[in-house]
Design goal:
By secondary structure, the chain is α/β, with parallel strands linked by helices. The protein is built from 16 helices and 22 strands. Helix 10 crosses helix 11 (315-327). The mean pLDDT is 95. The structure holds adenosine-5'-diphosphate. The active site is at 267.
Length: 517
């Protein structure tokens, strides 16, 4: 798939074939650790989306009629193929969006394969309810409460064609999770990955060609949000939409989709609090806080613990230990297995993070540590004397940074930065901690570090978030439902409950007393 230049071209995957955009236009994909273009992806528009939806609609009747155990078997073969190519896929992802190998190879790809297997195991567990409405003696049949009554049952059915819009921060993991859920439930899919990082998903489509999957079952179309994304949202052949991304874009998507009354699942942003109480195991809390905002995707994660609420009695002790921990985080080439933290995924996001650093200072926040960006940040965590590849000087680096303020109303405390920039906020009492934690429009996740069992349960009850972690942070698992409260989303993914998002309910009424006696 190479062009005459050194760039790699990745094509759309439609109806079982790799195709460029009909327009012949391409978008460039930049390696964020060097700032150089390394690949091209199709700049697709509504015509390509229409091809993909047509292919998916064509594939739907047979896939829906495929026995669930057969669907599960095909999904398991897909999972095996993912595992067999995990090194290669992880390397593409690390190059394309800068996520470190520790995460892509160590988690996303093998975890994605497990996620597919988990969803495969749910394919034949979809059951409905029976509701027996007894008859009313003497009533005529046909009306409510007829003499013989009725037997009612519910059936869960696939929607049809599911449109899945994926962001750039963890494309492969999301692709495996979402697509396997939709397929297990009997839908066919059209995926619109993010234009900034979709090479890994397009590369992963090669697996489908060797698996003998029906053409059109899975289609992937790259392109920008306004062009390919909106075409998918608007397409009348798409009956279910699943969007993961920012709250602002999610709001636009659901408004558009609502015009056609489509069912829409949203997984959106967050400004998650990570609360450190003074009686907590502070060493564990330091590791958990750093994992939540620095090494976890360089803070480019919807569940990033971006507000660190620290009890005032241990504020200085904790932030000193966090500074020492952050200083040892190795920032650098995401494809080096020793690297802990990679770059920001693309130039636009790099500018946004730098903008928030400047804004924070203008708003009066203080820098407790970090703050350097670009090549100046690159040496963070490297042992003294380590030579840095000169090519990395053009990368989008931001070092682990901790700002502090007492005002949770600042924009840096309310808006999603999506980078390795945390804000430390002191609090005095437990009640104050929860009040600050909940003082946000978001409600995706929250963490609390405590040795008190009672306090842990109080925190779980008090924190307004779809996920609450106690003495851990940023753990996700395909078996555990995950979704947002407030403006962080409207539907859970993962777990048995998550599969339900790919199914629509039908109620059947069978009136008795009309058949042969
Ligand atoms: P970011 O996290 O950079 O803010 P978005 O939430 O805007 O990203 O993007 C997440 C996904 O939504 C990407 O695949 C993007 O292309 C897509 N997208 C962006 N704008 C729209 C839109 N108006 N309609 C549909 N999809 C969109």
């Amino acid at each position: 798939m190479s062009t005459p230049s050194a760039l790699t071209d990745y094509c759309n995957f439609i109806a079982g074939e790799f195709r460029p955009a009909r327009s012949g236009e391409w978008l460039e994909s930049v390696d964020p650790s060097t700032g150089r273009v390394w690949a091209r992806v199709p700049a697709s528009d509504a015509t390509d989306i229409d091809d993909a939806v047509t292919a998916a609609r064509h594939a739907f009747p047979d896939w829906r009629a495929t026995p669930p155990l057969r669907r599960a078997a095909l999904l398991r073969r897909w999972a095996d193929a993912v595992l067999a190519r995990s090194g290669e896929l992880a390397a593409v992802e690390s190059r394309d969006n800068g996520r470190v190998l520790k995460e892509t190879q160590g988690g996303d790809v093998p975890g994605g394969a497990m996620n597919i297997q988990y969803n495969a195991s749910l394919a034949d567990k979809v059951t409905g309810d029976t509701i027996h409405l007894g008859g009313v003696p003497g009533s005529p049949p046909g009306g409510a409460g007829g003499a013989a009554g009725s037997v009612n049952f519910t059936v869960y059915e696939p929607y049809g064609v599911a449109g899945i819009i994926i962001p750039w921060n963890a494309p492969l993991a999301m692709f495996f999770a979402k697509v396997s859920g939709a397929l297990a439930a009997g839908n066919t899919v059209v995926v619109k990955p993010a234009e900034q990082a979709c090479c890994s998903i397009l590369a992963a489509c090669e697996l489908f060609t060797s698996l003998d999957l029906p053409p059109g079952l899975v289609n992937v179309v790259s392109g920008t949000g306004p062009s390919a994304g909106e075409a998918l949202v608007d397409h009348p052949g798409v009956t279910k939409l699943d969007f993961t991304g920012s709250t602002a874009t999610g709001r636009r998507v659901i408004q558009r989709a609502s015009a056609n009354l489509k069912n829409v699942s949203l997984e959106l942003g967050g400004k998650s609090p990570n609360i450190v109480f003074d009686e907590a195991d502070l060493d564990a809390a330091v590791t958990g806080v750093a994992g939540g905002i620095y090494t976890g995707g360089a803070g480019q994660s919807c569940v990033a613990g971006s507000r660190v609420l620290i009890q005032d009695t241990v504020f200085d002790t904790f932030t000193d230990r966090l500074r020492a921990h952050a200083a040892a985080i190795r920032l650098g080439d995401p494809r080096d297995p020793a690297t802990d933290m990679g770059p920001i995924a693309f130039a636009g996001q790099f500018d946004k993070v730098r903008g928030y650093l400047e804004l924070g200072l203008r708003e009066g926040a203080k820098v407790l540590f970090g703050g350097r960006t670009g090549a100046d940040a690159l040496h963070a965590g490297a042992p003294p004397g380590t030579a840095t590849d000169p090519a990395l000087a053009g990368g989008y680096w931001v070092e682990p940074t901790l700002l502090t303020t007492t005002d949770n109303g600042l924009r840096i405390c309310q808006e999603e930065i999506f980078g390795p920039v945390a804000v430390a906020i002191p609090f005095a009492t437990e009640e104050e901690a929860y009040a600050i934690a909940n003082d946000t429009d978001y409600g995706l996740a929250a963490g609390a570090w405590t040795r008190s069992l009672d306090r842990a349960h109080r925190a779980i009850a008090a924190l307004q978030a779809g996920t609450v972690w106690i003495n851990t942070y940023r753990r996700l698992h395909w078996a555990v439902p995950f979704g947002g409260h407030k403006q962080s989303g409207n539907a859970p993914s993962n777990g048995v409950r998550g599969l339900g998002e790919w199914l629509t309910l039908k109620a059947a009424w069978v009136e008795l007393g009309h058949g042969d006696s």
